[in-house]
Automatic annotation (TrEMBL):
Species classification: Bacteria, Pseudomonadati, Pseudomonadota, Alphaproteobacteria, Rhodobacterales
Pfam family of the protein (one): EF-G_D2
HAMAP family, alphabetized: Rel_fac_3 (MF_00072)
Predominant location: cytoplasm
Protein's recorded name: Peptide chain release factor 3
Length: 534
């Protein structure tokens, strides 16, 4: 029997019950609070304090650095798994600062949906918009949560219009708020014809939910005062006329987002949002790979690394590679093939971030995220299989937008610095280019805060004070092409040539004019601003 929505046979139940998603938002919109409430409903209450610690650590720049140094916290929050009714939710964390947008992009390659949290008073903010664009590049389904309705919020139609216009996506109301600010009572659940009433006295209580037969149900008047009821009826009637009804196919294609209104801090609207994730946040999706796509229900296990975190424990220099399972049923101890090096790897102590703490993952299914401790063999973009030479595609490395020269405070420690830099390059924390002429390294990042985090990590983890200095270059492009053309190009442009940590050729310049010139003079060569990680 085929699934009517996907036209594929239904997935095995263990896979079909998985929902793997990330939350995108502008700082302060309520991502941490919402995560906490997810865990509360997922029965992982112990976790709430940890998430809070992280949220508050993000308040100031120096605290943010401290958080980065406190690898333990950010790691256990990198991927969290919890059950919600019959579902298994895997929530993958995205970095909170726009300077780490490349990390965010790669994280979003590991999820099947994104929750967009916006502040009801502020609407679509700059970081929301940036992250949304990243989701759009992958056509990810997006569910929207409009938070802080217990405070003075904008008019509901205005919020919906703003999302539709700024993000060019259809918006369909899954719930409709009743009153706002001090008068906020709760929501009318437009998908299930229920009245959800917020309890202001107990912030962790699930809202009272009353079944009603549409907006003419006399029961409504028992709970909603006349002036709010009249407004609700009017607005919902208008919404039904002006806004599209929910279309699951459009949601799955990332062309329509359902919006729920609520207040994360009051636990209000959270359960309805979770029901929405269960219903619309799709099951594990096929993964693009070469030479063929990977389907989640294939018997053989495959997975790919989307994130690496190094030096979580300064004493051991261990690293954890985060693997998104793309297919099959993984069991602890399995021997998988590391496709890039063609070497077997026994995965004997994988970790999963269940409820309160790291745990050994005895098993994992397509859709799950596991952490694999290793000594540097696993890199971002790597694929693990049961032997087949598959390579997951679509995990890019972006050309950095800011370049600086880095030098060790102590020139005798140059080799040491090289080792540290290579490690951060492999972790994906920065681009490291070794110029063909001269000494030192050029480090490239997307946002300036990354330089600060790097400098502090190199000092903390390698005991090596470093200096970042302005570089003469501002842009980098990877260059590929036939050997003869490459040799000619490299010889004629020595001042501009560097190699990245994989040994690939990079052209550095400060002028777009230079890039245009190379493209014109060397028609056989390709200059790119992204490179697939493998
Ligand atoms: P993040 O930066 O997106 O992770 O945001 P947080 O979850 O840390 O929340 C930012 C601030 O907004 C904190 O002070 C929260 O207590 C507050 N907050 C979160 N949700 C709500 C809400 O529903 N109502 C109100 N009034 N405040 C909220």
């Amino acid at each position: 029997m085929l699934d009517t929505a996907t036209n594929r046979p239904p997935l095995p139940p263990e896979i079909a019950r998985r929902r793997t998603f990330a939350i995108i938002s502008h700082p302060d919109a309520g991502k941490t609070t919402l995560t906490e409430k997810f865990l509360l409903y997922g029965g992982a209450i112990q976790m709430a304090g940890q998430v809070r610690a992280k949220g508050e650590a993000r308040r100031t720049r120096s605290d943010f650095m401290k958080m980065e140094q406190d690898r333990g916290i950010s790691v256990s929050a990198s991927a969290m798994s919890f059950d919600f009714g019959p579902y298994r939710f895997n929530l993958v964390d995205t970095p909170g600062h726009s300077d780490f947008s490349e990390d965010t992009y790669r994280t979003l390659t590991a999820v099947d949906a994104a929750i967009m949290v916006i502040d009801g008073a502020k609407g679509v903010e700059s970081q929301t918009q940036k992250l949304f664009e990243v989701c759009r590049m992958r056509d990810l389904p997006i569910l929207t949560f409009c938070n802080k309705m217990d405070r003075e919020a904008r008019d509901t139609f205005e919020i919906i219009d703003e999302i539709q216009e700024m993000l060019a996506i259809h918006v369909t109301p899954a719930s409709w708020p009743i009153g706002m600010g001090r008068d906020f009572l709760g929501c009318y659940d437009m998908l299930n014809n229920r009245l959800e009433l917020m309890d202001r006295a107990d912030r962790n209580k699930v809202a009272e939910s009353i079944r009603i037969e549409g907006l003419d149900d006399p029961k409504l008047a028992d709970h909603v005062p006349p002036h709010l009821l009249e407004k609700l009826r009017e607005e919902v009637e208008m919404a039904r006329e002006l806004l599209p009804a929910i279309d699951p196919d459009e949601v799955a294609a990332g062309m329509m987002t359902p919006i729920w209104f609520g207040s994360a801090i009051n636990s209000f609207g959270v359960k309805e949002l979770m029901d929405g994730i269960a219903k619309y946040g799709p099951e594990p999706q096929p993964q693009s790979a070469e030479p063929r796509q990977i389907a989640p229900d294939e018997k053989n296990v495959t997975g790919f690394v989307f994130k690496v975190q190094a030096n979580m424990d300064a004493k051991h220099r261990d690293r954890v590679a985060f693997l998104r399972m793309a297919s099959g049923h993984f069991k602890r101890g399995m021997k998988l093939t590391h496709v890039r090096t063609k070497k077997p790897m026994a995965i004997s102590s994988p970790v999963m971030f269940l409820a309160s703490d790291r745990e050994l993952a005895e098993e994992a299914w397509a859709g799950d995220i596991i952490g694999i401790p290793n000594h540097g063999q696993l890199r971002i973009g790597d694929t693990l299989t049961e032997g087949e030479a598959l390579r997951v595609t679509g995990i890019p490395s972006f050309a950095p937008e800011l370049l600086q020269t880095v030098r060790a405070g102590d020139p005798m420690k140059a080799k040491h610095l090289e080792k540290a830099l290579m490690q951060f390059a492999e972790e994906g924390a920065a681009k490291v280019f070794k110029p063909g002429i001269g000494s030192g390294f050029i480090v490239g990042v997307v946002g300036p805060l990354q330089f600060e985090v790097l400098a502090s990590r190199i000092e903390l983890e390698y005991g090596l004070p470093v200096r970042f200095e302005a570089s003469q270059f501002t842009s980098a492009r990877w260059v590929t092409g036939p050997k003869a053309a490459m040799d000619k190009f490299v010889n004629a442009n020595k001042q501009h040539i560097a190699h990245d940590h994989d040994g690939d050729v990079v052209f550095l310049t400060r002028l777009q004019w230079d890039i245009d010139r190379i493209e014109r003079d060397y028609p056989d060569l390709t200059l790119t601003a992204t490179k697939e990680m493998h």
